[in-house]
Amino acid sequence: MADTKGMFDFAIDRGGTFTDVFARLADGRERVLKLLSRDPQNYKDAPTEGIRRLDINTVAAGGGSRLFFSPFKFAGI
């Protein structure tokens, strides 16, 4: 397994009932969320809501570039 110390990782697994959101922060802390995949009274989209709750604003894309998340799209700069 590759050494990911000091790196930021996140993954989203959307299923029929639940959406799981995992993030390993650069300082080693881990955050895990389990959201209903459909909960229209509380949010429009479970993956987007998970990212909002984790307070992920930017993700380094390497090579000096930056990757920004905006609902429903990623935009490289």
List the helices and strands and how they pair.
Blueprint: E1 9-14, E2 18-24, E3 30-36, H1 46-54, E4 58-62, E5 65-70, E6 73-76
Report on this model:
The protein is mainly beta. 12% of the residues lie in helices and 45% in strands. Strands 1-2-3 form a 3-stranded antiparallel β-sheet, with helices on one face. Strand 4 (58-62) and strand 5 form a beta hairpin. The longest helix has 9 residues, at 46-54. It starts with 8 loop residues before the first strand and ends with a strand.
Percentage beta strand: over 45%
The oligomeric status of these chains comes to single chain
- Widest sheet, order of strands: 1-2-3
Low-confidence stretches: none
Distance between the termini: 30 Å
Contiguous helical run count: 1
| Number of DSSP E strands | 6
Mean of all residue-level pLDDT scores: 77
Order of helices and strands: EEEHEEE
Sheet/helix structural class: mainly beta
Q: What would you call the shape? A: elongated
Q: Give the % helix.
A: 10-25%
| Rg over CA atoms | 13 Å
Sheet of most strands = 3 strands, antiparallel
What distinguishing features does this structure have?
elongated, 3-stranded antiparallel sheet, mainly beta, 77 residues, 1 helix, 45% strand
Condensed summary:
It contains one helix and six strands, in the order E-E-E-H-E-E-E. It has one helix at residues 46-54; strands spanning 9-14, 18-24, 30-36, 58-62, 65-70, 73-76.
